[in-house]
Design brief:
CATH superfamily of the largest domain: Pseudouridine synthase
CATH architecture of the largest domain: 2-Layer Sandwich
Number of strands: 12
Number of domains: 2
Shape: elongated
Length: about 325
């Protein structure tokens, strides 16, 4: 009988063989999986094993070729042929942090669309893990640019998720908003998705405690409209948090037509994930990651802000 051989990687270390096989062949019924392990159609390092055996990094899992052909997980996403114009801000064995351009989704949004997640996976040089797939650890809207973190190891993914849940990561954005925000404000609102069909996938503000701190950095004028460059610090990370709260409190992002922004001046809004602050760690991840502004954002600021303010910000 012919077998295909799959080598376990470091992220598979310590996992039960039945759990790993479920990742490789998810369509196989659990009872049939156990039977094939007992009968030797699935082996570990060339020998019969038990369903609860824990595998180690470097172990060889042997699966009968006929079995694998019937139940293997088929890839549903074609690898993209084009590249996204993104900048790597940091990369090691645990995390890949990039500066996302506006205009591309982090994850696949439609059947024929290309996502940043696909492009990153196609560009990855990581060995294939049986039980862990690298992917985005958080999201940005299609037209929001800036920092996005992708996991490169199970350890990195778990650490990032724990820090996000515990509020250990500081998140700062730059946005160009309508009107003059005179003083720093802190907003606490609830955010709910709007049910039903609508042109935009928007949210609404209700009573609640989702926090955003808005700090004016500079004020100016864009085609006779007052604008403020605002630094937003978010606590949590709700869908459209900055866009919805900024609009609700009288300062929609210029160009954000979904939330009342004037779209006659610019084709889309300017919102950029500018800085992430990380706590001390043993993963080699820097304590501070900063991403440069996109060129079109810079060009717009040079038009609407006083020259001395622009120089300080850029």
């Amino acid at each position: 009988m012919n077998y295909i051989e799959i080598t376990a990687q470091k992220d598979d270390d310590g996992r039960r063989i039945d759990a790993v096989i479920r990742k490789v062949m998810p369509a196989m019924p659990l009872s049939l999986l156990y039977k094939n392990i007992r009968t030797g159609f699935i082996k570990l390092n060339g020998k019969k094993t038990q369903t609860n055996t824990r595998i180690l990094n470097g172990d060889c899992i042997c699966i009968a070729e006929v079995l694998y052909a019937s139940y293997k997980q088929e890839s549903t996403e074609p690898l993209p042929v084009q590249n996204a114009d993104f900048i790597t801000l940091f990369k090691n064995e645990h995390m890949w942090i990039i500066n996302k351009p506006a205009g591309i989704t982090v994850q696949k949004a439609a059947k024929d669309s290309i996502s940043l997640d696909q492009i990153i996976k196609a560009s990855s040089d990581l060995p294939m893990s049986l039980s862990f797939t690298p992917g985005p650890l958080h999201r940005l809207d299609r037209n929001t640019s800036g920092i996005v973190c992708f996991s490169q190891s199970l350890k990195g993914a778990r650490w990032f998720t724990e820090q996000m849940k515990g509020g250990g990561i500081g998140k700062f954005y730059l946005g160009l908003a309508q009107g003059l925000l005179e003083h720093e404000e802190e907003w606490e609102d609830g955010i709910e998705k709007i049910e039903g069909k609508q042109k935009f996938h928007t949210v609404k503000i209700v009573e609640g405690s989702t926090r955003t701190r808005a700090k004016p950095l500079s004020q100016g004028n864009l085609f006779n409209k007052d604008v403020t460059l605002i630094e937003y610090q978010i606590f949590g990370g709700k869908t459209h948090q900055i866009r919805a709260q900024s609009s609700f409190h009288g300062h929609p992002l210029i160009g954000d037509s979904a939330y009342g922004g004037d779209c006659t001046l610019v084709p889309s809004f300017f919102l950029h994930a500018n800085i992430l602050l990380f706590p001390g760690n043993d993963l080699g991840i820097p304590l501070r990651i900063r991403s440069p502004l996109p060129q079109n954002f810079k060009n717009t600021l040079e038009i609407c802000l006083p020259k001395h303010d622009t120089a300080l910000i850029l």
